[in-house]
Structure prediction request, 405 residues.
Amino acid sequence: MDFGVPDKLNDVLGEVRRFVEAQIVPLEPVFLSSGFNAALPQLQQARTNVKALGWWLPQIPTEHGGMGLNLMEYGLLSAELGRSMLGHFCFNCQAPDAGNMEILLRFSTDDQREKFLLPLLAGETRSCFAMTEPEHAGSNPVWMSTSAVKDGDNYVINGHKWYTSAADGAGFAIVMAVTNPNAEPHSRASMIIVPADTPGYRIVRKIPVMGDSGEGWASHAEVRFEECRIPKSNLLGEEGAGFRIAQDRLGPGRIHHCMRWIGICERSFDLMCRHAATRELSPGRQLGTQEIVQAWIAESRAEIDAARMMVLKTAWDIEQNGAKQARDSISLIKFHVAGVLQRVVDRAIQTLGGLGMSDDMPLAYFYRHERASRIYDGPDEVHKQAVARRIMQNYGLNLRSGTEK
Ligand SMILES: Cc1cc2nc3c(=O)[nH]c(=O)nc-3n(C[C@H](O)[C@H](O)[C@H](O)COP(=O)(O)OP(=O)(O)OC[C@H]3O[C@@H](n4cnc5c(N)ncnc54)[C@H](O)[C@@H]3O)c2cc1C
Prediction:
């Protein structure tokens, strides 16, 4: 295994870090104080600059206008972008669009490509992904009520979703709906593209997340589908293939999340160390002279470095052997890195005291919004059980339960 920085990224990573510091971090105060829409004109300018520098869509193959980075290379870049909550958006590799681009690239028809994928790649529109339903446990995603019933050339969709991230202002949603209720659980649902202006598609509200409703890309919506008529030609891939397609984006998607979280850890660590070095408890006695703060610094450094190595090893494993072979590593990093993230951000807030709790610093935003890292894309417990189940199988104990993914 070679986790060295590939030659082609040697200069780029440093340049991207400087770009994030110089052009993206300065946009954070207006985003944090006035919201996504207020920051949008400056974010669009940053996007134009990113395009001009040749860094647009780092995760997308060059023939589709991206940088063509492989999973490990993109992971390294993603850790630089994660230093700001606006980094990925400025490079057009933000969730949920990045995942949607990936599945559209693989499964869309020519017509879908033209209408939905190309505007997304160009940054002319945004998208969202609607799977989770308030009435059912999202950790058992095959259990859902949203239905898409065929009627002539259309599907008629009825259902209720929530935590549809970035739905506010998105041009279209990719919706998971049951089209084949009598099939095996994993073959019941399909992905269907729903343009946001379709009658019957309705955003009910932006869900307040720890007191912050957000707006635009930086928000999570509750949505309803009420007799929502969509042409059959908007079916993505085959009917009943929804979960197979979702599975496809999950392995690489988790690397993307984990490396972004490592970027957040690095930024939080920097802020913690800078504050510990300069904040005086009394004249000439810096906070960093306290052994307990030194322990937080050392523990954080060890945890971030170890997490980074685990994620890079998993990315390498996926590239060498495929996501299925790497599934244990994928589950391990998903819960382990989310835990490191939570602890590092928490220690940084503690170090900064009142300043850490305020939106004058990005830490409170990280804390509010990244607490969810232990819940989305499979809660910690589900990943732990999946890994333990496979381990225990080697010891002759069968722990398979009916509700696991
Ligand atoms: C910020 C945020 C963004 C999101 N974005 C999207 C999005 O864009 N699109 C989308 O469709 N969904 C999205 N989600 C939803 C997310 O995927 C679900 O919240 C997640 O799958 C968990 O489902 P649930 O909330 O229904 O929790 P439940 O499934 O009800 O689980 C509740 C808790 O029970 C525990 N638990 C669950 N299963 C087990 C088990 N087998 N054993 C032991 N304990 C268990 C876990 O601690 C879990 O947190 C988002 C969620 C958040 C918080």
Observations:
- Residues 45 and 254 are 29 Å apart (CA to CA).
